[in-house]
Amino acid sequence: GAGVSQSPSNKVTEKGKDVELRCDPISGHTALYWYRQSLGQGLEFLIYFQGNSAPDKSGLPSDRFSAERTGGSVSTLTIQRTQQEDSAVYLCASSINNPGGASGYTFGSGTRLTVV
Amino acid sequence: AQSVAQPEDQVNVAEGNPLTVKCTYSVSGNPYLFWYVQYPNRGLQFLLKYITGDNLVKGSYGFEAEFNKSQTSFHLKKPSALVSDSALYFCAVRDPLNTGGFKTIFGAGTRLFVKA
Question: Cα–Cα distance between B116 and B112 in angstroms, integer?
C-alpha cells in the first residue's frame, strides 16, 4: 500500500481480555517495528522484524506481549490478559533496511488502546 | 547500548524567531541520527537524518540539524519559526554497529509551541 496501515485505530477493552493489533507495512519494506507511546511519554521500542531473521524482542515489557509477522508482510501484536498500564498508542513502522540501517521509518497512524 | 536525551520538555518561541530543539546522544561508534515530528492528531513523520558527510543536514519544512561529534549533539534548528511548526519533536539514534540491535531509540520528545 501507499503507507503503513494499522487497525483498529481505536480499541477499548476490558481488563483481562486479549487484544490483537494489526500492521500492514509498505510493500517492499523488509523491516517492521512496533513501538508504544504512552501519554506524556516518548516512544518505547517493543519488537523489530527484519526479513526472515529472528525478531529482536528485547523491548517487550512482559510475556503477555507477543508479535508475529506472516510471510514477511503483515504483523500482529498480541497482548494477553490486558492490564490498565497497557493503555497507550501502539505504533507500527516499516523501512527499507539497507545494510547499516540508514533508512528513516514510515509510521502508521497507530492504534489507541484503552484498557478499562 | 545507544541512548538519546532531549533535555527540554517544552520549547516556547515567538513566530518569526529562530528555534532550537536540543538533542544529545550516546552510542559506541559513529551514530545514525534522526528527527521526527508528530503534529496533533497525526502520525509521526520523518523530518531529516544524519548518516555521514556534511555535519549540517537539511530536511523538510525548512528544518535543519547540526551534528556535533565532540559534543555528541544533534540539535534541530529553523531560522524562522511558524505557528504551524507547533508539534512534538522526537530525536532518535541508531548504532550502525548494531551493538544494541537493529532498533532505533527515540528520545522522550520535546513539545514546540510557537506563539503568533
Answer: 13
Residue A15 pLDDT grade (very low, low, confident, very high; cuts 50, 70, 90):
very high
Over 70: is that where the pLDDT of A99 sits?
no
Average pLDDT in the A75-86 region?
Answer: 97
Residue A5 C-alpha cell reads as 496501515
| Distance separating alpha carbons of residues A95 and A89, to the nearest angstrom | 20
b/e burial code for range B63-96 (CB count within 10 A of at least 16 → b): bbbbbeeeebbbbbebeebeeebbbbbbbbbbbb
* pLDDT tens-digit map of B21-62: 999 999 877 889 999 999 987 888 999 999 888 999 999 899
Instruction: Look at residues B61, B92, B88 and name the one whose alpha carbon lies nearest to residue B77.
Output: B61
The closest CB to that of B102, out of A48, A108, A110, belongs to: A48
Interchain proximity A107–B43, CB inside 8 Å: yes
By the 8 A CB rule, do A5 and A91 touch?
A: no
> CB neighbours (10 Å) of residue B104?
27
Interface test with chain B among A23, A91, A105, by most B beta carbons within 10 Å: A105
Residue B94: the pLDDT is 85
Distance CA A8, CA A54 (A): 26
